[in-house]
Amino acid sequence: QVQLVESGGGLVQSGDSLRVSCAASGGTLSTYSVGWFRQAPGKEREFVCAMSWSGGSTYYGDSVKGRFTLSRDNAKNSVILQMNNLKPEETGVYHCAAAPGIGRDYLATPPGYGYWGRGTQVTVSS
């Protein structure tokens, strides 16, 4: 049973950068595809980005392309999401998730994931 724990959230101003991490236990994260989703109050969970377990493909939501970067730290059994030029509308709880499959269509929607972290709050003030 893979357990995921996010960290690194906080309160930042519009235009600032923030790095959030997702650490795994109970399994080797590099053997899973990993995704990040965010959820604002009263809204559905929104796809942010994902990386296949093969390491060959990384996918980003249209709104974050060019500003967010997803990477793996296999030595720490974790993934890192670097977020630059944050916007107030990106405020929400950021969840990481792990999935066995690959492919953008599969990884861009929550049902593909079997393991979820509880999330870390990111608040971007204007």
Short précis:
By secondary structure, the protein is mainly beta. It has one helix at residues 104-107, and strands at residues 3-7, 10-13, 18-25, 33-39, 46-51, 58-60, 68-73, 78-83, 92-99, 115-116, 120-125.
Structure overview:
By secondary structure, the protein is mainly β. Helix content is about 5%, strand content about 50%. The protein is built from 1 helix and 11 strands, in the order βββββββββαββ. The strands form 2 sheets. Strands 2, 4, 5, 6, 9, 10 and 11 form a 7-stranded mixed sheet that branches. It has a 4-stranded antiparallel sheet with strand order 1-3-8-7, with no helix packed on it. The longest helix has 4 residues, at about 105.
- Give the overall silhouette: globular
Radius of gyration: 13 Å
Q: Which class do the helix and strand fractions yield?
A: mainly beta
Q: What is the H-and-E element order?
A: EEEEEEEEEHEE
Instruction: Flag low-confidence runs.
Output: none
Specify the number of helices. 1
Instruction: State the end-to-end CA separation.
Output: 40 Å
The percent range for helix content is under 10%
- Main β-sheet: number of strands, strand sense, barrel status? 7 strands, mixed
Query: Regarding quaternary structure, how should these chains be classified?
Result: single chain
SS elements, strand count? 11
Question: What is the residue-averaged pLDDT?
Answer: 96
How big a fraction of the residues is strand? over 45%
